[in-house]
Amino acid sequence: MQSKRKIYNRVKIVIALVVFIVSIGFVNKRQNDALCKKLLISIENQQGNFFINEADINDLVTNGGREMVINLPYEQLELKDIEERIENHKYVESAEVYRDLAGNMMIDARQERPIARIFNPSGQDHYISERGEILPVSNRFTARVMVLSGSFFKKYLDKNMLVDDEGKDLFYFIKYIEKDKFWSAQFAQLKVDKRGMIEIFPQVTKQMIEFGDTYQYDEKLKKLKIFYDKILPDRGWNRYNRVNLKFENQIICE
Fold first, then answer.
1. 145, 203 contact by CB (below 8 A)
2. How big is the chain by its Cα radius of gyration, in Å?
3. Which of 12, 61, 112, 228 sits a CA distance of 20 to 30 A from 203?
4. Number of domains in the chain
5. What are the CA-CA distances from residue 19 to residues 13, 25, 73 (Å)?
6. Looking at residue 130, which CATH number applies to its domain?
7. Where in the sequence is the domain holding 99, given as residue range(s)?
8. Is residue 164 part of a domain?
9. Does 31 map to a domain?
C-alpha cells in the first residue's frame, strides 16, 4: 500500500512538472507572438542640449522608415540590432531597447553632452563631450560652452577621444572648469599651443591670463581667485592687460 502511495506521489510530481513546462512554453509563445503596439522613447542627459529628439530615434528604429516595427510580432524584431543602431548615432552615448508587459517597445537613450567647443579656423568645428569624445557640430543646435583654440587640438580633430596620454590632463582641467559654476562663468576661451601651454580669455574683464600647463591647476586657480577678489577691486577691473600665473606663489600683473 505504501509503495502505491509513493508511486502516486511521483506521478503527481511528474504531471505538475509537465504542466509547468507546458505553461512556460505557452507563455513564451504568447510573448513571441505579441505585436509591437507603440514606441515609447525617453532621452536622458539633455539639460538644454537638443542634438537628438524622438523623431531621430524613431528614424533609427525604423531604419529611415524602411523597416516596419509597429504591429509586427516581437519574434520578428531584433531588439539588440535596433539598440546597436541607435548607439551608433554620433550624439547617443548609450541606449537600451526592450518591451514592456503591455507590448510597447521601450527605448531609453542617453544623449552625449558637450562641455567645450574646438574652434577650427581651417575647417569644421567640433565639440568635446563630458566623456572626452570628439563630436561634430550640429546644424540643428549650438551648445553654449567654452571655446577651445590653438594648435594643440589639430591632431585630435580626426580622432574619437581627447583622453589619451597627452590630452587627458587638459581634458580633466576643462571638465573641472565646466563643472565649477564660478570658473565656467568666468572663462570664455582657452587657447592651447602645441606644448600644452594655456592662455585664458575671460568673459568680462579684458586681462589675458597666462596659465601655463595644467600642472597644479587648482593652486593656479586659487591665485587667480585672489586676483579677482582682492587685486581687481582695489586697482580697477581694467587696469591690467596680462596676468601671469605660471610661477609658484606669484601673481605677475602687467
1. no
2. 29
3. 112
4. 2
5. 10, 10, 26
6. 3.40.50.11690
7. 39-111
8. yes
9. no
What cell numbers appear for 30 in the block? 504568447
Tell which residue, 169, 170, 227, has the closest CA to residue 202.
Answer: 227
- Cell numbers for 9: 506521489
Q: Residue 56: which CATH number?
A: 3.10.20.310
- Rounded Cα gap, residues 125 and 216, in angstroms: 29
Specify whether 43 is located in the same domain as 83.
yes
Q: Which of 111, 132, 151 is the last residue in one of the domains?
A: 111
Read off the C-alpha cell for 96: 537600451
Query: What are the grid coordinates assigned to 32, written together?
Result: 513571441
CB-based contact 37:103 (threshold 8 Å): yes
Q: Is residue 124 part of a domain?
A: yes
Write out pLDDT tens, residues 186-216. Answer: 999 999 999 999 999 998 888 899 999 999 9
Residues 65 and 118 in one domain: no
Do 82 and 126 fall into the same domain? no
> Mean of the pLDDT values across residues 6-20?
54
pTM of the predicted structure, to 2 decimals:
0.78
Dist. CA 15–CA 7, nearest whole Å: 12
Using alpha carbons, list the distances in angstroms from residue 123 to 118, 149, 229, 233: 11, 13, 39, 41
Read off the C-alpha cell for 212: 601655463
Handedness of CA 207, 114, 177, 181 (dihedral sign): positive
Q: What is the pLDDT of residues 34-71, one digit of tens each?
A: 899 999 999 998 777 789 999 999 999 998 888 889 99
